[in-house]
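Kindly go through the entry underneath: sequence plus fold tokens. Please state briefly how this chain folds according to its tokens.
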Amino acid sequence: MEERTLGSSGLEVSAEGLGCMGMSEFYGSADEAEATATIARALELGVTFLDTADMYGPFTNEELVGRAIASHRDEVVLATKFGNVRGQTGERLGVRGDSAYVREACEASLHRLGVETIDLYYQHRVDPSVPIEETVGAMAELVEQGKVRFLGLSEAAPETIRRAHATHPIAALQTEYSLWSRDPEDEILPTLRELGIGFVPYSPLGRGFLTGRFRSPEDLPEDDFRRHNPRFQGENFGRNLGLVERVEEIAAEKGGTPGQLALAWVLAQGEDVVPIPGTKHRRYLEENVAALEIELSEEDLRRIDAAAPQGAAAGDRYADMSPVNL
């Protein structure tokens, strides 16, 4: 497995990571045995950059990941997040970034994960009521204490990223990025590259839409949150299916699936880009890893850009995942 370094931080990770969120929540029913087997298979394939968060489950995803890596801790670069506050029954309680909460959340994550140190600790969402300097200052104290190795942000706007990075070096920014979510190309990516911060795209397969597996909204499980996502609804679904069909055509020529082509495109955006496609099934993990074998020429990239230009997707991302412009 190829490795990449996140910006100028020195943090080396597998070129492709594994998003673990769907193993516990949001994408239909959970199967812990298959999820655990998927993590084990990821490590066998060299996918050692694992991504979770305290809010997933809520709380249970960190526990699952912790159990799965217990005998492989030294092999794994473990990333988790704090800031989206949820109650024990799953209720949403807002966003917190105050220093007391940063410390509290970290201790809880360390306990659930069963580890002494978190490799990459993200602020999951920016708290508009707390200066970013306070939040990152508290995160920096965790680094000094050896509880965290590197710091990250998620869905932060350029000015917030600058202020955070001036407080303590930020190793990575995590934001949605794929062939149907290309907004980071305008300001986010240039800012990251100026500052030497790595880019970790989540949902690089468009929440599975770009795999071509969904031909109608009814293909989604009844309890799948994507049924409420604007891009998976009504006329938007049909228009977005046209985008997938254009990607499918190019993928077939390259001998791959549309999902593999979509991942290969993200991987081709720079050595500082490390996508974390999420899956809870071994077969999809293996398909995703095979995307690393697809080589895209300049002509391939031009054709893909023409097939899925910025703004091509119909429908908005869901509102609570939009960047906080602070």
Observations:
- Confidence is low (pLDDT under 50) at residues 320-326.
- Residues 234-254 form the longest helix (21 residues).
- The two ends are 37 Å apart (CA to CA).
